[in-house]
Design a protein that fits this description.
The chain is α/β, with parallel strands linked by helices. Helices cover 35% and strands 22% of the residues.
Length: 457
C-alpha cells in the first residue's frame, strides 16, 4: 500500500510525475523540455537506468515514498497508469483539487502528429505492431508508443514523427480527458482488470469507449461487429466519427468481413476493395483474422496501396511473449504466451493451436471467470500445470475437465513436469490467464524464465 511521507520542505508550484517507469520518465523529460519545474516521485525503488536518465536531465526525484509537502505544491500531476484511484497519494491530490492526468494526455499537447489509437482486452499489442509494420513498410514517418516500446512523451520530446501508432490500455484511457484520436480502434471488450472497476463490466466497457471521446466527424472509429460488449456500448455511447466495423460473421457495407472463400474483404468509400486469403496471413488463428482486419482498415483509410498491405500482412513477425515459438524437443512444441494475462487471451491461444496441449497457467488472479475455457480445455488440454502461489480457482474450475492438474512453485519445475506429461505431437503452452507479480517481475520476466527453462531440458 502506498503511503504519504511528511518529511520535506516546501517548493514552488511544479509538475509532479508519479511513477518513474517508462511513461513517467518520458513525461519528466518532456516536461523539463517544455519549461516545467519537474519532480518525480515513486513509492517503489526506481530502476538504475531510469535514475541515470533523470540525473542526466537534471530532474529531482524521490523513491520509496510520496512526500506530502512536495505534493502540496503541484500545479499539475502526471500519474503512472498502474497507480489506482484508491492509492492514498491520488486521494490526497483529488481532495486538494490538483489536476491529475496521464502521460498520453500530457504528451499529445506538444505534437501535431496524427494518432492511431488501439485498445481492446485482447490483441491490442499485436494489432498495434502490425499497424505500425504496415505504415512503416509503406514509407511513412511513423512512431510506435503507448503501452509498448519507448514512451509517447519521450518520443514527442526527442523525435519528429508525422504519425504515432499508440497501444492504449484502459488504465491509460482513465487518465485521458481532452485527448482526441484521429483513428480509434476498439478490438473487443472481455472481462479484465475488473478489480479496478468495482467488478462491474459496464464500468470497464465505459473505460474502453473513452478511446472515442472528443472524436469529430472527420475522424475514424474501427470496431468489432461480432463483439457483444462493444455492441452494448454503442447503444449508450454516441460516436461522432465515421464508423468502420469488422466481422467474421456477416457482410458489412463498409469496413471488413470474411467472404465464403475465406478471404478478407475491406471496403472503404472511394477506394478499391482489398482482398486477401486468410491462408496467406503471417498470423494464423481466428483472433488474428480480426487483428488483420482492424489493421487493414487503418491502412485503407490511410490510402495505402493494396500490394503494400498484402505484403505486410504476409511477412509480419509477432511480438515476443505472444504465441512465440520457443523450441521443439522430442516432437513436442514449446510456445511462450506469457503476455496472455486474462482468460480470453488463453482461449484465443488454445483456439489457434493444433493437437493436444499441456497448459501452464496461474499467477495473480484478477477476478477471472474460467467458464469460457471449460469446453476448450475438455477438447484440447491433456493436462494443466499450475504456476502461482494460490491455484485454488484453477483447480475448482477444471478438476472435472482434464485428467491432470499439478501445482508447481518455480518455472523450471513447471516446464519439466509439463514436458513429462506431454506426448509426441503435443504443445506445451505457457498461457497464464493471470498477472505475473506473485513469482515474477512482469510478464516479460515470466516468459524469459520459461524460455530459459525449456532450453535446459
Amino acid at each position: 500500500m502506498e503511503t504519504l511521507d511528511t518529511n520535506s520542505s516546501k517548493v514552488k508550484p511544479k509538475l509532479i510525475v508519479l511513477g518513474a517507469g517508462e511513461s513517467g520518465v518520458g513525461a519528466a523529460v518532456l516536461g523539463k523540455q517544455q519549461g516545467f519545474e519537474v519532480f518525480v516521485s515513486d513509492s517503489s525503488e526506481i530502476k538504475q537506468g531510469y535514475k541515470e536518465q533523470l540525473k542526466n536531465e537534471g530532474v529531482r526525484y524521490e523513491e520509496k515514498r510520496h512526500t506530502i509537502e512536495e505534493m502540496q505544491t503541484a500545479g499539475l500531476v502526471i500519474k503512472s497508469p498502474g497507480i489506482p484511484e484508491t492509492a492514498p497519494v491520488i486521494k490526497y491530490l483529488r481532495e486538494k483539487g490538483i489536476r491529475v492526468i496521464g502521460e498520453i494526455e500530457f504528451a499529445a499537447q506538444y505534437t501535431k502528429a496524427k494518432t492511431i489509437c488501439i485498445t481492446g482486452s485482447n490483441g491490442k499489442s499485436t494489432t498495434t505492431m502490425l499497424t505500425y509494420h504496415i505504415l512503416k513498410k509503406a514509407g511513412l514517418n511513423v512512431g510506435l508508443a503507448g503501452n509498448i516500446g519507448k514512451s509517447f512523451a519521450l518520443q514527442v520530446a526527442t523525435e519528429k514523427f508525422d504519425i504515432y501508432v499508440l497501444e492504449i490500455s484502459s488504465f491509460m484511457l482513465d487518465d485521458m480527458y481532452d485527448f482526441r484520436a484521429d483513428i480509434a480502434v476498439l478490438l473487443n471488450i472481455t472481462p479484465d482488470h475488473l478489480d479496478r472497476y468495482d467488478y462491474k463490466m459496464e464500468n470497464y466497457a465505459n473505460s474502453k469507449f473513452r478511446i472515442t471521446q472528443n472524436q469529430r466527424s472527420e475522424d475514424v472509429f474501427i470496431y468489432c461487429q461480432d463483439d457483444p460488449e462493444t455492441l452494448e456500448g454503442l447503444k449508450r455511447i454516441k460516436i461522432n466519427a465515421s464508423m468502420y466495423p469488422f466481422s467474421l460473421k456477416e457482410k458489412v457495407a463498409q469496413g471488413a468481413y470474411l467472404n465464403e472463400q475465406n478471404e478478407i474483404i475491406i471496403k472503404v468509400p472511394n477506394h478499391e476493395n482489398f482482398i486477401m486469403s486468410i491462408n496467406d496471413l503471417a498470423l494464423q488463428g481466428k483472433h488474428n483474422v480480426y487483428n488483420n482486419m482492424a489493421s487493414g482498415i487503418v491502412a485503407k483509410v490511410w490510402e495505402l496501396r493494396n500490394e503494400t498491405i498484402r505484403e505486410s500482412m504476409g511477412d509480419f513477425v509477432n511480438i515476443p511473449h505472444r504465441l512465440e515459438h520457443v523450441s521443439r524437443i522430442s516432437g513436442i512444441e514449446f510456445i511462450n504466451d506469457s503476455k496472455a494475462t486474462n482468460v480470453n487471451s488463453v482461449w484465443y491461444a488454445l483456439e489457434s493451436l493444433p493437437g493436444k496441449i499441456v497448459l501452464i497457467m496461474g499467477g495473480v488472479d484478477k477476478g477471472n471467470d474460467y467458464n469460457m475455457l471449460k469446453e476448450m480445455v475438455q477438447k484440447k488440454v491433456r493436462g494443466i500445470v499450475c504456476l502461482g502461489k494460490d491455484n485454488r480457482n484453477i483447480h475448482n474450475a477444471f478438476e472435472e475437465d482434464t485428467e491432470v492438474i499439478v501445482n508447481t512453485a518455480t518455472m523450471s519445475e513447471a516446464v519439466q513436469i509439463a514436458y513429462h506429461i506431454a506426448q509426441k505431437g503435443d504443445t506445451v503452452l505457457l498461457s497464464p490467464a493471470c498477472a505475473s507479480f506473485d513469482l515474477f517481475k512482469n510478464y516479460e520476466d515470466r516468459g524469459d524464465q520459461f524460455k530459459a527453462a525449456v532450453r535446459e531440458l
